[in-house]
Amino acid sequence: MSKQETGDKTIRVTLVRSPIGYTKDQKQTVLALGLHRIRQTVEHRDNPALRGMIRKVIHLVQVEE
User: Fold this and answer.
1) pLDDT tens digits for 9-63?
2) Residue 51 structural domain
């Protein structure tokens, strides 16, 4: 995929588990994704930095492309 193809796509991220009890950097990653409440959904443009953040907290979120 070229950079233009991935830049046009959006990813929908939903918080499905609470970050309470997880490490501080995982809590901060959830907040950086814009998630504050369980079942809250946000949309972001697909890029490698976002994919890395999602990979760090994949056990707390649900991802739809």
Assistant:
1) 999 999 999 999 999 999 999 999 999 999 999 999 999 999 999 999 999 999 9
2) 3-64
**pTM reported for the whole predicted model:** 0.85
Token duo for residue 23: 């490490």
**Which three-class secondary structure state does DSSP give residue 56?**
helix
32 torsion bin: left (phi>0), alpha (psi -120 to 50), beta (else): alpha
CATH code, domain carrying 28: 3.30.1390.20
What tokens were used for 50? 């976002």
Overall number of domains in the chain:
1
What CA–CA distance (Å, rounded) separates 57 from 33?
A: 10
